[in-house]
Amino acid sequence: MRILWVKMGGLWPATTGGRVRSLNTISELARDHQVSVITTHAQGDDPDGLQQQLAGCERVVSIPYAVPKRGSATFAAAVGSSWFSHYPVDLWKWRVGAVRREVRRSLAAGDVDLCVADFLFAATNVPMPARRRAGHVGGVPVLLFEHNVEYLIWQRLAHLETTRWKRALFEMEWRKMRACEAEAITRAALTIAVSDDDRRRLAEMSPGSRVVSIPTGVNTSYFTPRHNTEVPARLVFSGSMDWHPNEDAVCYFAESILPRIRAEVPNVSFTIIGRNPSARVRELTAQPGVAVTGTLDDVRPSIAEGSVYVVPLRAGSGTRIKIFEALAMGKAVVSTTVGAEGLALESGRQFLAADTPHDFAHAVIRLLRDPARRHALGCAGRALVEANYSWATVARQFEVRCEEVVAEHAYVEREAIRGVDLSRAGSPRYRGAGVVAGEQPAVGWSHRHS
After folding, report:
1. What is the pTM of this model?
2. Exposure string (b/e) for 146-184, b if CB count within 10 Å is 16 or more?
3. pLDDT tens digits for range 142-156
4. Same structural domain for residues 80 and 179?
5. 307 and 207 in a common domain
């Protein structure tokens, strides 16, 4: 297959869950297919390093673009401009003319079988048809890769917000986001979610559209247990600290949960690992025992120091790669239900679930006092991800879905040439992992650059 992959916000270094998921999927696909990538980069990104990471790709184009940040004049301008459009500001700020032009040039060249819009933000820069029945533009089907249910993040943030004017803005944001998200799903030939929970939500937004799910993966060779490195009573959290749900999570934990733990475990400490911490997050270091690392080239040593890995998320969507990485390192994990949403985990077996400050603190305290229980949870988590969630396994599922879309599109094109009315004759239907078009067999791509 000849695949054009469009991703806003960069890919390297792989400092976010979305980047990790996309980079590993692209790398695996490039082993057997011609993959071209169009992305953006800003300060702190490394486009040259990305070229090296994706050396197996046919072409990697990275366009300089700095997304407007909260509090800046450009962000205020984006907010104002979005008010006069159907776009929420979180999509408006990712509309980049240079990216749209590069995408159109690539599609017009006629050597692309499939275009992947990676995240909803990419879809604003990918030409998509006015009608879902076609599922393509310029002869190229579009696959929407939804790492999150984007509107749900803003809806949850709106429900958590106590300042009235901010809540009103968040309410408007999630409603506009939901409309745009539903439109993109409707226009895509296929939408891939990262959990069954998200698949159901996305399908409900656009009845009749094709929505499937694939699991999240983890590099079990890179994230491995490190023995004798735990710091007593050390709690750790990792994630991109410029993502609002992560900022909310660590502030909520430090303000509402950590004091309850400290009352029972006075020597407890909390390390916040992740890029671009906001001023609000950095201010947490005023509390005793709280450390904020900022960007790290390698997060594993800091995670390894944790006695317990905490995921106190109250908003968000998709699946948290951070949990699988912690489990791969054999860490005992305590998470909210939202934090572990969409992952095939069983509370009490691979992690502990807790949703109130009291319950969360109690779960952490129990683990800090019970090394054997921590070890048992960590071993069970490691065994689960090692057996089921390697990137090669996950990427193969993604590849099969891509093959289905290309095969169906080829069938539709052939029938159109023959003059068959597909509204009466019927279009191909998915059966299992392949596409069945009448008596057509499922398509397989078994050699490089088919």
Report:
1. 0.78
2. bbbbbbbbbbbbbeebeeeeeeebbbbbbebbbebbbbb
3. 999 999 999 998 998
4. yes
5. no
